[in-house]
Amino acid sequence: MKKLLSLTTLLVIMATSTHAQIKLSYNLDENTIYNSKVTIDQTIAQTMMGQTQNIQNDQGYGVTITVEKKNTDSYSLSMMYNSIMINSPKAGLTYDSETATSEPTGPAKALSSVIGTEFSFELNKDGSVSSVSGIQAMLDSMAANMGLADEAQASAFKAQISAQYNEEAVKSQMKRTLVIYPDKELNKGDTWSADESVTTPFTMNIQTTYELADFDDKTATINVSSNIFSEEGSITMGGATMTPDLSGVQSGTIVVDKKTGLVLSANMEQLVSGVMNMTSPQEMEIPIEISGTSTIEGSIK
Fold it and tell me: Exposed, middle or buried: residue 34 (CB in 10 Å: 0-12, 13-18, 19+)?
């Protein structure tokens, strides 16, 4: 009888282990503080008039996100920038707020003005962002950080910087540190998908497949695979009007905190290629390939 009981217990344990499930979503408490740092290393190879040019364009930023209010199906959060980095030798711009030993000048000063500014947004429990507010106040703060007392200069600065810091661009930026979770329990090996658009530096559709690779008591590891396509529409870059025709892939691994759903670490690789069709000031087809890696480091208080 004792042997039979032991065998039955073992079978129950094995069955429970085999069918272990978890439910992933954002589960945040008020006053939770989340710090994350995003680093993007990117190489752009473009061919013009038979000449291929490689352009290095690295960037990074650190943010602190605070849970201000817990709603029924969402969270009211504030986000403040606490560091900024850019390394773009071709543009003559290299600056890292964490290692700089002197006050930045020129374009670097404009970028560094984002440090200490904040805005608010609503995060749904599945990881989607429903609204962003406070962008204008953030731009006003950036202009003040620049020391632009003249109203005309301040207006011109805010008009220029708003191309990078506007509601849609900020949403695109936040999507790098958010996972879209399914409304179901998951076993190891289960997959789900999400279809999103980002608008910076131009509109791209990202079709992502997530796979729950593993989990333990504290974390869950998710494999990510994305197909990327440029959407219709033209952009203006350096005085030239262009229409992107690009596609590519992205893949990597994300580790999330099982309790809160927040990203603890991520490593992604991306390769996008195609052509940029210039229509003004002249007509030209520019083959382009964009390759890069991105990392995220996160911590929760």
Answer: buried
